[in-house]
Amino acid sequence: MSAPQIARRVIRASRPVSWINTAYPFAAGCLLAAREVDWALVLGTLFFLIPYNVVIYGVNDIFDWESDSKNPRKGGIEGDVVEDVAERARVNRAIMWVAGAGVAVYLLAVLAWGSWPSTIVFLVAVFFAYAYSLPGLRFKERPVLDSFTSAMHFVLPLVYGILLGGGPILSLSVWPIVIAFVLWAMASHAFGAVQDILPDRAGGIASIATWLGARRTTRLSVGLYLAASATLLLLEWPRLVVAILPLAYVAMVAPYVGLHDGRSHEAHDGWRMFLWLNQATGALVTAALIGVAQGIF
Fold first, then answer.
1. Which residues contact 278 (CB under 8 A, 6 or more apart)?
2. 202 and 162 within one domain
3. Which of 133, 166, 199 is the last residue of a domain?
4. What's the Cα-to-Cα distance from 93 to each of 59, 76, 97, rounded to whole Å?
5. What's the chain's average pLDDT?
6. Torsions phi, psi of 205, nearest 5?
7. What is the mean pLDDT of residues 256-270?
8. DSSP notation for 98-127
9. What does the alpha-carbon distance between residue 147 and residue 143 come to, in Å, rounded to a whole number?
10. What's the start-to-end Cα distance of the chain, in Å?
């Protein structure tokens, strides 16, 4: 396998379709807090765009190969599977090198311009990214903690960006958004885990969905989305109108609340809808952020 082929494999392992989910929260938080585009914003966005996702998803692919190889939805945009043993070893080494080097290089920048609170949040974010998959920690196999850890993958870049930009993380205009984001992300992880109940059990991997089962997990997901919506009602008018956004996800999950474990794979259709719904929701959130920046929302 040539170097370009290995590079493509590493990129695929990092889930390009999900890059925006980590880079956007950081960039939005940092830009709204600092009100300017500087090197801290640019380099941070680049880190959370690619290296951070190599840590989250690439490292996960290394240690989840057995279950992924039995999962029919893996091998495309939702996860890479390298069958050849020698090629897999080379790709795995490249993933660990890119992940480690990316974190180390960016950490030097963090120490140079970040405050102590922002640096601590960054290190916690990296810890959760590795702890999700690394043997000995494997937070992804600890029900409930798996969903919380997954939420931290997306929420902590937002918190880090706000702190890096000097924003007030405890203000009434910020903390309800952070809490709602945690609830939304936990709900999304839980629902996403439903489609993998059978292959995860076959591979001996525990998750919130294998623990609760499809029916209770989807109902929990609905409850968390509703809690996220309720939390956003704490925002001042007119910003509280964004509380309607999590309700779209309630409508998305609702058809699956009666799903039995034996049909859990059917939740994959809902997950694909989730990926598209994120694009529409992201556009509306962007419009709201522009309104905030312009002082009209």
1. 21
2. no
3. 166
4. 10, 20, 6
5. 87
6. -105, 130
7. 93
8. HHHHHHHHHHHHHHHH--HHHHHHHHHHHH
9. 7
10. 52
